[in-house]
Specification:
single chain, about 240 residues, mainly alpha
């Protein structure tokens, strides 16, 4: 049983006494942003704690809402190791709000187990679109929701709502807006950019793995997500 939990230092006592304990809250944030907290493992039958994925995500959301974006960046920076960026880490989408909210909304309302690219595009339609356009639109918006931790994609390229996505779905609009920059910061490229000092040259270097035309197409998407994080920081400092 212990082998299922060998990489997780968080047992029942940790979770039960976490909220209000700054040391434990920060430990959770570090684990989450380093991507070392595997929420799916809380679904295992053989484990050393009694927590469910939904319980963990409810706790995580409360902590994310409690801490400012800037304080989270400073916390991550304490022992930060930049992510190695792949092409999959560089977002491509048409509408960030659709990725943030609508992808999860339509997935839950549809009741479909495992949504394909073209199904996602169809579910997200606001106007007529052909099958090829549906497929590409569905793929891009859903993959961005995956990067935010709200959806997961299996080996067949089918999409499922994550426990975090389910908890996010039930939040108020104001809570979703407050969480948006924290979810953007979870993505490797955005996290690298802010934790290493918002270095434009470094950003160009991480994105240089793309062909020039792809770089040009995806840069506004990266700037959009970076802008959401930056606006959250400026809202606190009023700069």
């Amino acid at each position: 049983m212990a082998s299922d939990c060998k990489n997780c230092p968080f047992f029942d006592e940790f979770w039960e006494s976490l909220l209000g304990d700054e040391r434990k809250e920060k430990a959770l944030l570090k684990a989450y942003y380093s991507h070392s907290l595997d929420i799916s493992c809380f679904d295992k039958q053989l484990k050393l704690c009694s927590q469910t994925p939904n319980q963990i995500c409810e706790i995580l959301i409360k902590v994310l809402l409690k801490y400012s974006t800037q304080s989270i960046i400073e916390l991550i920076a304490e022992d930060f190791i930049p992510f190695e960026i792949t092409m999959a880490d560089i977002p491509q989408f048409s509408d960030f709000e659709v990725c943030l909210k609508d992808v999860v909304d339509v997935s839950i309302r549809s009741g479909i187990d495992g949504i394909s690219y073209d199904q996602m595009g169809f579910l997200l339609r606001t106007q007529p679109r052909n099958l090829v356009a549906d497929r590409k639109y569905g793929e891009n918006q859903a993959k961005t929701a995956v990067a935010l931790g709200l959806m997961r994609m299996d080996y067949r390229h089918k999409f499922w709502v994550t426990p975090l996505g389910t908890c996010f779905y039930h939040l108020s609009d104001s809570e979703k807006k407050a969480l948006a920059p924290k979810l953007c910061l979870y993505t490797p490229l955005v996290q690298n950019y802010f934790v290493t000092g918002q270095n434009g040259k470094a950003l160009d270097g991480w994105m240089s793995i793309l062909a020039k035309s792809t770089y040009t197409r995806r840069l506004p998407n990266v700037q959009k997500m970076n802008g959401i994080v930056k606006e959250s920081i400026e809202d606190v400092y009023g700069s």
